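Renewal narrative, Specific Aim 1. Our central claim is that a sequence can be written position by position from structural information alone. The example that follows is taken directly from our test logs and has not been curated for this report. It begins with the structure tokens describing the chain, in the order in which they were read.
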């Protein structure tokens, strides 16, 4: 199953990846997924905090060579 929304935020710095995630959230419906890829050093802590604050679920987070991928389930 592919995500409903994909965001490539590589090359942007805090807070831009989270701003892009928030924009995508406004277009998403409950149950949909957003996959966001970023290379910002603060992205891991930022995306976890965003999910906790908004009540959405961080389904997965991985890092490979400084590139981070987060899958968020919208509630």
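The sequence written for that structure reads:
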């Amino acid at each position: 199953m592919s995500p409903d929304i994909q965001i490539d935020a590589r090359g942007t710095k805090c807070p831009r990846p989270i701003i892009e995630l928030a924009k995508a959230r406004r277009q998403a419906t409950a149950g949909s997924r957003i996959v966001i890829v970023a290379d910002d050093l603060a992205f891991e802590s930022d995306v976890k905090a965003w999910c906790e604050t908004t009540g959405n679920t961080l389904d997965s987070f991985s890092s490979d060579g400084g590139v981070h991928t987060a899958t968020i389930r919208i509630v």
